[in-house]
Amino acid sequence: MTHSCSRRKFLGTMGATAGMLMARPFSLLADTAPAGRVAVGVCHQYGPGVISTLATMFDQLGGLQKIVGGKTVAIKLNLTGVSYDRLGHMRQEDTYWVHPDVVGSTIRLMAKAGARRVRLLESPMGTAEPLEEFMLASGWEPRDFENLGTKVDFENTNYLGYGKKYARFMVPGNALMYKGYDLNHSYEDCDVYVSLAKLKEHATAGVTLSMKNCFGSTPCTIYGDGSPVDEPGLTPKGGRGPFHDGNREPSKSALQMINPKGSKDPGYRVPRIVADLVAARPIHLAIIDGIQTISGGEGPWIPNCKPVRPGLLVAGTNCVNTDAVCMGLMGFDPMADRGKAPFETSDNTLALAEGLGVGTRDLNRIEVVGTPIAKGRFNFRKA
Amino acid sequence: MTLDAKWVPMKWPCGPLDFALRSKGKAPEAGVKETLDTWAQPAALEILKGTPINCLVVGWAAGAPEDAAQQEALKPLIAAGIVKGISFVGKIAAKDVAAAATSAKAAGLAAVLISEPSAQELDLPAILQVARDKVTWSAATPIFSASDNEWPGVKMDTMKGDTAVAGPTGVPWVNSNAWFSLLAGEMAPGKTIWLDFDAPEESTVEHPANYTLAIADSEVYGSRWIVSLDDKLREALLKSVPQATATWTKIGQTLSFFASHPQWRAYKAQGILTVISDFSGDNGFISGETMNLLNRRHIQFKVLERSKALLAPIPGAMALLWLDKDAPTAEQTTKSLAFVRQGGLLIAPTYWGPAGVRPTRRDPSIAYQVYNVGQGQIAVPDEGFADPYQVALDTQLLVSRRNDLARLYNPATTNCHCTFDPVHERRLVQVVNYATAPADYVTLWVNTRARAARIWNSGSAESQTIKGVNAPPGTDFGLPTVTVNCALEIEV
């Protein structure tokens, strides 16, 4: 590898940091959790305005070249659920999926910034079909992403895929639910990891933003309802029920629950698993599509979801910082505890990730560039 | 007397013979005899008013002591029916078919329904009825009937829809005779197929079986269901129980809907995929079940009997699924390779392309060796065509969703069938709902650009215009609530 920060070097640095972090109490980790810059852009519709808005935002973050120049970039998309679920007659990307205009603009800008290769990743529900076929079934054209100035490939990360083995990511410090997670090789075979998510609430975890997007990086061949007892399945079956309710362990090839007798409440488990995941597989760049989205939940299977148009794009190099700013823009308090909106029935994922030292959720410490939160705010609960 | 393809048939159980057959081995439920007697009366024909039903299938001869009494009892019914323009088909299960047919003719019946081809010439035209897994297509009569079909719908543990039985993917399992209707259309071209199946035993007046679906599932795919009501409904109808009357009205409306569009039957099935097999013997199960599962995946396909395969070009074909282990003939080999070289995809159990071509893998999830030959490909499964579910899934991926002709979003338990009117160059897409609950917010996507289409919804005589929304490379149509079926006519 010729780029300045190799994968191996980065993970080695993380390991050293982990050693330091292990020596500190949880609260001190939160106090010193990284605080960076988050860019907020206003963009009222998809189309040509997306790329110029994102370009400005990336410049405001210090430039994309520093992040992706010469690198292999893996982008975890947010295409949750199946290919045929729509909210009413509205297309998925206009409601609960990240929009292809945002995906394409991001790729184009990364290509311009010198990214060597971009890998689009997602774990479509209950299927090992090629990611391109999943996109086609949804009405997307994956070829639209292939002529944007850099090599683009696709991988369904809900199973082993093109890898020879799963990649194990250990949680630095004191893991919360599992000491490590086995993921598709693509999450390791990259220099830069990007979470590209939709700005949404979540019925179980309160919000789903750049961090919760990573819940879907876990393969259901190991962590799914239908995964075999001993070894990973060949194809994913069902959803991530075991993560939600702890009714069973993952396949024995993977690390088992730290506390098998612990809480079975999804509002307890899911935020902790997400915090573990973003600590274990750090996110270098978080991008949130809030141009058009839904309020009330994460997908049309949640009753009373409705389409909303906040007209926002958000990006940051720290996922906790970015999600905190997103929460502020959504009309929520990132410091909220369980019982307070949006965490009526769950613990605060941002607090847990902050406790692991991933980043701060304190808006007083985060530098917001572009549109101020107060000006860009779109109150999801009053929409 | 000739068989009339326009007959809209209904089973009409009545008389002493039907009662005797019901009584064999077990005592029939209370009220059955009275119902059978009442339905043998001319007055019972009044319920047909306002429906397109014009052909009644009655028990005629079963080699039972009650045969003579039956034939005598039905005389007034038949006479009254003929005056109303109703034709009668007598079901014969007796050894002396010829004699029974002669008596049927004398009584004014128009045809007989028999279970084996008759060695003797009969006085009346015959409709051959065979269990569908024992069909000899070459023996099919101009109107031909298959029995032992599925009652279409979502497989439920109870008729009240408490629990849907899930299929391999976890979505509710849907029973349908669609694939068999498509097969029959190929194997008995130009003939009319009547499907014989009865309502589930759990059907009640309060919770009736989905009769309108039984009609739609048959008609949309080119066959005709012999309308068959359960005993409780028949009893309640003659007593004018409001719920029974309401069910019967919907049945009549659905039959009328399809009867008012007879031209749709002549449209050709669309499909870029052609399924090739002899559909019999050792190949029967895998071919039938694969087609069933292809249909469940909303894949539009054509059916081609193996001996005819590739002798003539297949309009619009992009992919061939050769299911049989039997090798193609020399001519078929040559023509299939020509098809592949010009860009087609051949999915076959063994490789018969040119030597020296090294296979590749398209994707780790597809367990096929793929050979690039000319501009096309030959795909061969690693382990043969053992599991029809896997065959259907893999075929959909190999053909690619990019080549879909139509898709359904929020499909719930709907499915769609695409046909083409070559005369007016119009596409017809019919959507069928397999659940009893109406399907809301279904979007139909077609791979054609269209600003609008004409839509007929269940039971509506008149069409309306439905606007299309640009969804490149095709068009989205946000459908109104689908109760049983709807049909969109799209100008190409």
Describe the structure in your own words.
The complex is a heterodimer of chains A (383) and B (492). Chain A contains 12 helices and 14 strands. Chain A is of the alpha/beta class and 383 residues long. In chain A, strands 4-3-2-7-10-13-1-14 form an 8-stranded mixed sheet, with helices on both faces. The radius of gyration of chain A is 19 Å and the shape is globular. Chain A starts with 6 loop residues before the first helix and ends in a 7-residue tail after the last helix. With 492 residues, chain B is an alpha/beta fold. In chain B, strands 1-2-3-4-5-6-9-10 form an 8-stranded parallel sheet. Chain B has a 6-stranded antiparallel sheet with strand order 11-19-20-26-22-23, with helices on one face. In chain B, a hairpin with a 4-residue loop joins strand 19 and strand 20. In chain B, helix 2 (32-39) packs across helix 8 and helix 8 crosses helix 9. Chain B is globular and about 75 Å long. The A-B interface holds A 84-86, 88-89, 91, 126, 128-130, 133, 136-137, 139, 141, 156, 159-162, 235, 237-238, 300 and B 169-170, 362-366, 397, 400-402, 404, 407-411, 441, 443, 445, 469, 471-473, 476, 478.
List keywords for this structure.
heterodimer, A: 383 residues, alpha/beta, eight-stranded mixed sheet, 12 helices, 14 strands, 27% helix, B: alpha/beta, six-stranded antiparallel sheet, 26 strands
Put the structure in a nutshell.
The complex is a heterodimer of chains A (383) and B (492). By secondary structure, chain A is an alpha/beta fold.
